[in-house]
Model the fold of this input.
Amino acid sequence: MRRITTIGAATAAVAAGTALILVAGPSSAGTQATTAQSGVAAIQAATAQAAETAQAIGLAGDEKLTVRSVISDVDGSQFVRYDRTYKGLPVVGGDLIVHRSGKVVRGVTKNVDKIDVASITPKITAAAAGAKAAKSVKLVREQAPQSDLVIYAQPGKQPRLAHDVTVKGVQADKVPSELHLYVDAITGAELGRNEHIKTGTGNGIYTGSVTIGTQAHTGGGYELKDAAGNYATDVKNQGDPNTGEGPDGTLFLDSDDKWGTGSNSDRASAAVDAQYGAEKTFDYYKNILGRNGIWNDGRGARSRVHFADGMVNAFWDGTQMSYGDGANNAAPLTELDVAGHEMSHGVTENTANLNYSGDAGGLNEATSDIFGTAVEWYANNANDVPDYLIGEEVNLNGNGTPLRYMDDPSKDGRSDKCWTTSTGGKDPHLSSGPLNHWFYLASEGSGAKTINGVSYNSPTCGGAPAVTGIGRDKAEKIWYRTLSTKLTSGSTYKAARDGAINSAKELYGASSAECKGVAAAFTAIAVPAGTAACDGGTDPTPTPTPTPTPTPGGQLLKNAGFESGAVNWTGTSGPINQDTRRPAHSGTWKLWLGGNGSSATETESQTVTIPSTATSAKLTYWIRTDTAESGSTTYDTMKVQVVSGSTTSTLKTYSNVGTNATYTQVTHDLTAYKGKSITLKFTMSEDQSLQTSFVVDDTAITVS
Done:
């Protein structure tokens, strides 16, 4: 956070009588979201002062501000969130928050300071940028890319003129994708990417007998729509799995106001779950956090059920929820935590609008986990007992374990529990781990305990002291205030720490147990102290948790985890990548073969020599596979091969039949090749339609 502490030249330049005054000082306690009516007036007032604000906070003349939202405290002070343009071009990452009391500016939070680029005339055409983006993204049946010229500005980096290329298509699980790739308009380099569609997963109908909001339908009977405007429609599996688009659906109607049977055979049962989830999420934000719905204007949201044939997912697209019916249309994904998680993406989108990459991506996903969990506790449904487990009823792992653990995220074998400098390079579902861990620690404290019949044991990182929890309800309020008044699109874990401490000070006081508990929980996940501290001295900086590195142990392969890109590997250009559509097993790079949905052959190989003195040699690698194909016919294959002299031996063949989207480690004995130079080769062949992806990571050839 950059806090303005003096009245400077920028203020003096503003005309007398209308100038905004810049001061430092504490905020009042308590946040109250504006009502729809007062919100409109507040936005209009802030818009009228936008030019003065830009000048007062030191922006250049070519930079203009547009008001996005206003959050008001009970004492009338406000947090005004702005978007920025530069010479008429949108600035991606240029958003900022001004904390003000009337005309007094108390602080400014922003990703980047002044915007300055040498030229706004591109050297790379929009068509060339679109072609580059289309080539680098693997989606089933992509639509033609669309491009807009923007300024791409991210924390710690020089702002660049860029093409914002939107690539739309559908992922392997039939969920739509709207991926924004930012291509440098001068050099053609990819600067970053951000996925607009946020997805979640589930496996059934869970709520049981519940009360839901309905109303009389014109013409007789009832409609599944509550007073706030949350309602459910039946798309009748007419959503297009190739584009992710579909009709609005038919509003659910009923003659006696008794909906569903709890069985998938009654199409209204899934609608009951979806409606219940939407209502509980709306009520939680309104009654607990003072936010009047996703958009803070009292509007409810539509839930489209029975969306696309066989879609094993659910997603929030910025305006509504869409739920698939699962494999063979047998298990609608309409459970409570899905609704809470996904609709919270809508709240994030309409507040901090956190990016879906870097540290911000992890903060984004964790925010949905935090508030999805909060909705579950708020609903307190006996059929879904509240806990600190994510997706515990989904069973995607096939062994009854949850998708994520908030008390110790590393228990899933992939997520970070402690923040490191490499956390931001991981898939957002994995980089969410440290903040999920923080929320549990802040809520319940560290160590072993049993809550609602579930055993937890939450550690601390880097030798940090034990943490005493402040209570889940307070942790929720502190994090919501941080999201809505402190974070911007490119915020980092360090910014989250400062923001949460300042939020705790504003809500509970600078010397409060709540402030100290929040700071201690961030120390316990290894986020170092920043500019914010509770009264009583500077918060301790944790001992950094080292980024794990593989032990060589006779490792012969170089760049075995692909973290140096394609270095040391020979083959097709492109499969070794950081594309977040398929996660790496560890780090951010992996080998993604296939996934094209068109005829293609791809290979990657590396040559090693196994010492003649070796007593054993083995090849290991982690692999996950997924496909858009169906049936038992083999169309696409990937072979793991060893080439020795003129002989090529296939160790294993994977295909579109029997895919497994969970990473699994595979081992092959190579002792027979001791004393020989061999080439390890991964070879993929894909037919002309429907993708199959073979993702390999963390390879090793070890000898002893």
User: Anything to note?
Assistant: Residues 638 and 654 are 5 Å apart (CA to CA).
